[in-house]
Amino acid sequence: MSAGLLVMFETEPALCEALERLRAGHIENLRTYTPKPLESEPAHSPLPLIVFVAGVTGSIAGFALQVYANTSAYPLDIGGRPRYSWPAFIPITFEIGVLFAVLAAVFGYLAINRMPRLYERVDDFDSMREALRAGWLVAIRADDPELLARARAIVDRLHPAAIEEMAA
Q: What are the residue boundaries of the structural domains of the chain, listed by start?
């Protein structure tokens, strides 16, 4: 039983046309492997939002920790300075915000890209060797044989350079 198809096209426009037709035929779970990003495919990454939220959260947490420590937990009267002296808290607030943002960026990047993933079954196919140089590939994964048959019929009409079946 086949769990998917790996289809290679000669050009970027041919791949883009295949993606349009597959999506029009309600074929989902498509993954492209190309030598450069496709211009027709929008890049939606949640990473900038994750980094921003982590930075703001870290800044708020750092500021709150300093306020708590200096006003409630261990108040000291140093040189007549007020307990809540917020200008003194700004450098550490900034540094902790940057620390949280950088940590979120590193771990978020790894999580979003499912890394480190050293092996994927699609890497075994002959067509994948061309993906970084001149191949325009789309992997269609589905457990439903009818869906794969529909997808195969759609891509057969487009005359791809190669079609390989992926095992379950």
A: 2-43+119-167, 47-112
pLDDT, one tens digit per residue, over 114-158 is: 888 887 777 778 777 767 777 899 999 888 889 999 999 999 999
Q: What angle do CA 139, 108, 48 make, to 5 degrees?
A: 95
CB 48 within 8 A of CB 56: no
Residue pair 5/151 in contact by the 8 Å Cβ criterion: yes
Q: Which residues contact 143 (CB under 8 A, 6 or more apart)?
A: 3, 168
- The closest alpha carbon to 92, from 51, 131, 62, belongs to 62
Say which residues have a Cβ less than 8 Å from residue 29's Cβ, sequence separation at least 6. 140, 141, 142
H helices present in the chain, as ranges: 12-24, 47-68, 90-112, 128-131, 145-156
CA distances from 1 to 5, 126, 165 (A): 12, 20, 9
2-43+119-167: CATH topology is Alpha-Beta Plaits (3.30.70)
**Positive or negative: CA dihedral 146, 151, 156, 161:** negative
DSSP secondary structure code for residue 73 in this structure: I
Q: 75-86 pLDDT, tens per residue?
A: 888 788 888 889
